[in-house]
Amino acid sequence: MQNDELKNIVKEKYGEIANQTKTQNETSCCGVGSSCCSGVDYTIFSENYSELDGYNPDADLGLGCGIPTEFALIKKGDTVVDLGSGAGNDCFVSRALVGETGKVIGIDFTETMIDKARENAEKLGFNNVEFRFGDIEKMPLTANKADVVISNCVLNLVPDKKKAFAEIYRILKVGGHFSISDVVLEGILPAKLEQAAEMYAGCVSGAIQKQDYLDIIKTNGFKNVSVQKEKKISIPDEILLNYISNSELEELKQNNIGIFSITVYAEKNECGSDCNC
Questions:
Q1: Distances in Å between the alpha carbon of 244 and those of 195, 201, 248, 259?
Q2: Residue 61 carries which DSSP code?
Q3: Is 171 a member of any domain?
Q4: What is the domain range of residue 181?
Q5: Are 206 and 6 a contacting pair, CB within 8 Å?
């Protein structure tokens, strides 16, 4: 599929999910209702936010694969940009960290998610949290805007990851940094999984090899790149069998191909992307 086709798949699926609660996403067979039992559980990677300052249940759709704010070194007064902000979950947690003097900007290209996030922010009475419609490959932000960029299980859905990380570099201030939770692979997925649209929207088929992911970050000029957290994801056999045969599933297990959630940290190079400092 072409990049635009992949983006339309993601937009359609997450537009449907935006109209459901976290409980519905957890109890439906693929996150978008009982009529689509050929699909994916979109909450399979999610972690528990309920004890965090700033947590708002209305904004938590269970769609993340980590808690990037846990490692993001966010300070009072920072400007934080959340890529793929959804209903606002990570934005509201970030807002508790930046305080009244800081600012949080969420970017998402699913209109329904933007509407839901703005409703949540209005109910909370926040005037320093805003949500902008936009594509991560071409963000609606000026250069050198953010102290910190976060994202939670979203960049794996972006077809052109090189362009996405170039944009992250552009919007970060000199000396700024990011903390991003995402899904990566160790080993090659079966072709049928790679081609499955549902699995793409569910974060698996859009994932790339872990080393390739880290190399893209480094080639965009970032320094001090490190994996802050890593865990292996176990996807139930009944989900995988929607796309591959029993024999292919056994081969997948025997080859020990891994799907991992990682949280990655990196800093904007203070002397430009072409230098070796």
A1: 11, 17, 6, 16
A2: -
A3: yes
A4: 3-268
A5: yes
To 5 degrees, how large is the angle CA 140–CA 145–CA 151? Answer: 70
pLDDT at residue number 253: 84
66: helix, coil or strand? Answer: coil
Alpha-carbon distance of 214 to 227, in angstroms, equals 9
Q: Would 150 be classed as within a structural domain?
A: yes
Residue 35 predicted with pLDDT over 60: no
Q: For 147-202, what is each residue's pLDDT tens digit?
A: 999 999 999 889 899 999 999 999 999 999 999 999 998 888 888 887 776 665 67
The CATH code of the domain that includes 131 is 3.40.50.150
| 275 inside domain | no
Q: CB-based burial of residue 97 (10 Å sphere; 0-12 exposed, 13-18 middle, 19+ buried)? A: buried
Distance from C-alpha of 10 to C-alpha of 109, rounded to nearest angstrom: 9
What is the tally of structural domains in the chain?
1
Say if residues 152 and 64 touch (Cβ distance below 8 Å): yes
Beta-strand runs (E) in 154-201: 172-186
Q: In this structure, are residues 63 and 49 in contact, taking their beta carbons and an 8 Å threshold? A: no
Identify which of 224, 87, 219, 97 has the alpha carbon closest to the alpha carbon of residue 162.
Answer: 219
Residue 275 and residue 185: Cα distance in Å, rounded? 30
User: Can you give the pLDDT at residue 272?
Assistant: 53
Identify the CA nearest to 244 among candidates 189, 172, 184: 189
- C-alpha to C-alpha distance for 129 and 121, rounded to whole angstroms: 7
CA distance 125 to 155: 29
Domain annotation covers residue 276: no
Averaged pLDDT score across all residues of the chain: 86
| Token output for 151 | 């994202």
Task: Tell me the CA end-to-end span of the chain in Å, nearest whole number.
Answer: 39
